[in-house]
Write a structure and sequence with these properties.
It is a single chain. The chain has 724 residues and is an alpha+beta fold. Helix content is 54%, strand content 15%. The protein has 19 helices and 21 strands. It has helices spanning 17-37, 39-46, 51-67, 69-80, 82-103, 120-151, 158-187, 200-220, 234-251, 273-289, 293-299, 308-313, 325-354, 361-387, 479-484, 586-609, 616-641, 646-669, 676-721, and strands at 10-11, 14-15, 190-191, 197-198, 399-405, 411-415, 418-422, 432-434, 438-442, 448-450, 456-465, 468-478, 488-493, 499-503, 506-511, 515-516, 520-521, 525-532, 538-545, 550-555, 570-575. The strands form six sheets. Strands 13, 16, 17, 20 and 21 form a five-stranded mixed sheet that branches. Strand 11 (456-465) and strand 12 form a beta hairpin. Helix 5 packs antiparallel against helix 8 (200-220). The chain is elongated, with a radius of gyration of 35 Å. Belongs to the major facilitator superfamily. Proton-dependent oligopeptide transporter (POT/PTR) (TC 2.A.17) family. InterPro entries: MFS_trans_sf, POT_fam, PTR2_symporter_CS. It is found in: Apical cell membrane; Cell membrane; Membrane.
Length: 724
């Protein structure tokens, strides 16, 4: 039953109260995503945690945020109601955000004023308290706000309610988009009393302020809201009702007892028909939820830090967005949502309706899952193209070597089964692979046995040592290191004296003759280099590095300072630049976001429309729980599969979702849409008759009991008086 202080104002057929709810959701999502955007950085650079530990705590926090909605739903539907639950848990939420902002103030414990907190335990404890409060707050209000917004509409406003859920989803992504842009910028500012450090207090403080604004806006609209009172401890009632039905059915499992239409009907002996009907509605929807986590399994691999699609982007040519790459990876999804939601609501769905196609909510959700599966097929096709361009690294039983000729003369080299010729100051074009130790001979000299470490990339430099030719292993590069060497270069000094090399404003240091510098990680683009000899003479030049490339620059013995000194410097390509353009990821992002819009927005509306009046928040929490389960499936499948090729993983996930999509489509065929309000009204009308019948049966039992008691008293009295 709904109640309100006065008839809600409306604008264009929409209750004006939803304005406050949408603004509240925008501010709350800005607060949550803004804080989360810098959380891992805070762990790593402020609390000085290791990468693995920081990411573990981060994912634990996110998982907690999706588990607490169950608690919020129980409180809302059973005890406080949605309105009060949102108010109280928003206060907890805001306090948590303020605690996080305070925990990031380094001056609190920086007694020696060196910019480093002296009591890290204090900051860790405070931040953990803040995160727990935030998880309780954001998770607790998550199922309530959407359901509370749905409560503002009458039963005949189904179209307006569907539009509201689309606007509601837009506000979520608008808040997410702005916060993930703004809070990293705030963090980059310098602030502090005694010493200026990266401004985490500001990066956390602004989301805290937005949460306070969200709370104030929500309270301001209080008098305009339609408020559904809680129905008592409904979850306990539901559990007891289901338990009794199962128990009673088991007791009457014999074929001598007549069958009932539904197994929940076995609870009729103890529970009223209205509650049983409501439980049936909830169980029908929860049963449909079972396949849904697979969608979120694919969705969450899209653009979160460290996800498969993000890692795929690092192996592609991103020159067209090189300055915006980190930003685009986290904002492309909300940007597409802001574009696609209005298109779907204003163009696509109306066109489908005009074509007389019955595009029901469950059919929409099925199509959304199919789009997500196709997105992963597109990602697999892109990955196949990337794999063809990536360098082939050695396995754990192989070794790879590159040979460099630092001699001013041609070398004829035999290395195991390989025979090749190197011109002066050149290198082999690719790394050669060896699966066992080999013998190497230079210019028909006596062969020498060479043993290289397996699983590594090794560089062998052949140079003059006095009057003889010799070789030396000057650099060993592991597979993992090779990935860290992307956008990098190193210098090999073949000059007759030590040289100092600088990259931009950073000095590599002195490099002795026939020595090689370690790899230096660089930003892609045009890089300036400076070479300086012992006399202070300099040679400056620049090179353009492709996205993902790695080079060795070697300075030959013929090198000379001067105007065109860079012409003497030889360039060897260790890793080719990424050649597959990052724009090829656009189709998979578009397909996935289309699937999300069709699936998620529809799912929110469906969960509300099919839920009984006293369990709206519970079903919203159940919907959110599918997200948490999806995250767990990612870990299970990824660990269990252990596929060597990334494209195969994409196909595996796509195949699993297609299978789930088929199962869900079959389940949807047997689902009968219900109008919870009408069903509840029917049983409420029947309730007086049921109560009267039960009262008559109760009175009859009481009369019989009184009659037996009277007969017992007469019998006892007769015994005492000696009549019997």
């Amino acid at each position: 039953m709904k109640y309100f202080l006065f008839r809600p104002f409306s604008f264009c057929g929409f209750p004006i109260s939803i304005f406050f709810i949408v603004v509240n959701e925008f501010c709350e999502r800005f607060s949550y995503y803004g804080m989360k955007a810098v959380l891992v950085l805070y762990f790593k650079y402020f609390l000085n945690w290791e990468d693995d530990f920081a990411i573990t705590i981060y994912h634990t926090f996110v998982a907690l945020c999706y588990l607490t909605p169950i608690l919020g739903a129980i409180i809302a539907d059973s005890w406080l109601g949605k309105f009060k639950t949102i108010i109280y848990l928003s206060i907890v939420y805001a306090v948590g955000q303020v605690v996080m902002a305070v925990s990031a103030i380094h001056d609190i414990t920086d007694t020696n004023k060196d910019g480093v907190p002296d009591s890290m335990t204090f900051h860790v404890a405070l931040s953990m308290v803040g995160l727990i409060l935030i998880a309780l707050g954001t998770g607790g209000i998550k199922p309530c706000v959407a359901a509370f917004g749905g409560d503002q509409f009458d039963e005949d406003q189904e179209k307006q309610r569907g539009t509201f859920f689309s606007i509601f989803y837009l506000s979520i992504n608008a808040g997410s988009l702005l916060s993930t842009i703004i809070t990293p910028i705030l963090r980059a500012q310098k602030c502090g009393i005694h010493s200026k450090q990266q401004c985490y207090p500001l990066a956390f403080g602004v989301p805290a302020a937005l949460m306070v604004v969200a709370l104030i806006v929500f309270i301001v609209g209080s008098g305009m809201y339609t408020k559904v009172p809680p129905a008592g401890n409904i979850l306990v009632k539901v559990c007891k009702c289901v338990g009794f039905a199962v128990s009673n059915r088991f007791k009457h499992r014999s074929s001598t007892f007549p069958k009932r239409a539904h197994w929940m009907d076995w609870a009729e002996e103890k529970y009223d028909k209205l509650l049983i009907a409501q439980v049936k509605m909830v169980l029908k929807v929860l049963f449909l939820y079972l396949p849904l986590p697979m969608f979120w399994t694919l969705f969450d691999q899209k653009n979160i830090p460290g996800s498969r699609w993000t890692l795929q982007a690092t192996t592609m040519n991103g020159d067209f967005v090189r300055f915006l790459l980190p930003l685009l990876q986290i904002t492309v999804n909300p940007i597409l949502i802001l574009v696609l939601v209005p298109i779907m609501d204003s163009i696509v769905y109306p066109l489908i309706s005009k074509c007389k196609l019955n595009f029901t909510p469950l059919r929409r959700m099925t199509v959304g899952m199919f789009f997500a599966a196709v997105a992963f097929v597109a990602a697999a096709l892109v990955q196949l193209q990337i794999d063809n361009t990536l360098p082939k690294f050695s396995s754990s039983t192989e070794s790879q070597a590159k040979f460099i000729n630092m001699v001013d003369g041609t070398l004829h080299i035999t290395a195991g089964p390989e025979k090749f010729t190197l011109d002066p100051f050149t290198a082999t074009q690719d790394y050669l692979t060896f699966d066992e130790p080999f013998e190497m001979s230079v210019n028909a000299s006596r062969p020498e046995s060479i043993t290289l470490p397996h699983g590594n990339r090794t560089t062998l430099v052949i140079a003059r040592e006095g009057f003889q030719l010799g070789y030396r292993i000057v650099s060993t590069l592991c597979w993992e290191d090779d990935h860290r060497a992307v956008f990098s270069c190193r210098f090999l000094n073949g000059f007759r004296s030590p040289l100092s090399v600088s990259v931009g404003t950073e000095s590599i240091g002195n490099i002795n003759t026939n020595d090689m510098s370690p790899y230096v990680k660089l930003s892609h683009g045009t890089i300036s280099f400076t070479i300086e000899n012992l006399l202070g003479n300099q040679c400056s030049f620049s090179r353009k590095l492709g996205f993902g490339s790695s080079f060795t620059y070697f300075i030959p013995s013929t090198f000379a300072m001067g105007e065109n000194c860079d012409q003497h410097i030889r360039e060897v390509e260790d890793i080719k630049p990424n050649s597959i353009h990052m724009a090829w990821q656009i189709p998979q992002y578009f397909l996935m976001t289309t699937g999300e819009v069709v699936f998620s927005v529809t799912g929110l509306e469906f969960s509300y429309s099919q839920a009984p009046s006293n369990m709206k928040s519970v079903l919203q929490a159940g919907w959110l729980l599918t997200v948490a389960v999806g995250n767990i499936i990612v870990l299970i499948v990824a660990e269990a599969a252990q596929l060597p090729d990334k494209w195969a993983e994409y196909i595996l996930f796509a195949s699993l979702l297609v299978l789930v999509c088929i199962i869900f489509a079959v389940m949807a065929m047997f689902y009968t849409y219900t109008d919870p309000a009408k069903i509840e009204a029917q049983f409420l009308n029947m309730e007086p008759e049921d109560k009267e019948k039960k009262n008559m049966e109760k009175d009859k039992k009481v009369d019989m009991l009184e009659l037996k008691r009277e007969e017992h008293r007469s019998y006892t009295l007769a015994l005492r008086t000696g009549l019997l």
